[in-house]
Sequence to fold (427 residues):
Amino acid sequence: MTTKYDLIIVGAGPAGLAAAIYAARARLRTLVLDESVAGGQVKTTHKVSNYPGFPEDIKGADLAKAFATQAERFGATIRRAIEITAHDFSGPVKTIELDEEEMVEAPAVIVATGARPRDLGIPGESKYKGRGISYCATCDGAYFDGKDIHVIGGGNSAVEESLFLTQFARSVTIIHQFDHFQAEAATTEEALKNTKIKVIWDSEPRAFIGEGGLQALSIENVKTHQKVELKTDGVFVFIGYVPRTDLVKGVVPLNKWGYVETGEDMSTPVPGLYVAGDLRSKSFRQITTAVADGTIAALAAQKYVKQAAKVVVAA
Amino acid sequence: MSEHVREITEAEFEREVLAAGQPVVLDFFSTECPPCEALAPKFEAVAEQFAGKARFLKVFRQGNRELATRLGVTGSPTLIFFGRDGQERGERLGGEEIKRTAIKAQVEALFT
Fold:
């Protein structure tokens, strides 16, 4: 038994949900699939300060829910905690198997699977994931009450989440590979003023060390090549993301960094297959740019679906 | 909570997990944890598949810190798998990327 839709969107982050809002309002039968709950990376961001329309900071989780609620209000179906176990996007009818037991299909698909946190790829990382190393400050921050913790990274996420972690931790030491942050100036200023935050510049982590649980972090100064071991109660890693292209690999062209090359209308060389959001090759990856991608993809897909329907009727 | 997944406290750990006499999957979860919310329906689905054969339990991390610390759990969600003998087996699963098929495969391995 296969359920038919006009448009299937894979990924319920800002790009996918913006696409769903536009598609559902265009009266396309729209299905959104996500292996987690809705929101993509936004849902684990403790606050969002730069999304227009919210003069006060909004919690990432609340913004994520608002996106989803809005899409559902117009009739989009959002399926959460779904695993895609097989798919074929190559033909005019795109099929997806869900949880090894259910089939859905549509003439058009928007892949908006975003990106996953980048691994450091250093010794001890897989051993201490969830045993001292965390990638989600809202999930785990509260357990570091009065502790001394470390944050790896220097972009917006790293610095923002460090500020959040100062609510709990006694000290937050940021390890950053350059001599300045890549985060927005406003965030950087706030962090550098915070007395709980220390920064170790020009340094990269080399290994996670411990017996049983994580106890220390080995870092190296990239200029002097001096190595030091830092005692730690926990490490949060925010060193950027890698695109989640598993579903489209081999079907659409990727650039040398692994991001998907699309047309300006988010189209790919495969008719009816669109790609929107962080997994696309582009200069800036923000919630606002993801939302823009999703909007464009939905409008382009809508045109395609109506065209495809006409061809079917004519034939 | 459903009929297939039950929440326990650290006081029940010994009896419900170590002395269960059947395979157990233990899920440490937190509030304000979207990956935990995402895991819940997958955990539920696998629990239903193994109903009567394996025990699927949840522990609220905030309320049971002593147990979490004892087991070295520092991230939510964390899934720990125990064999019939009460020994921890296989790999712990954590974070947002836990797949339903991965949980299922680990539970199946508990019967071998």
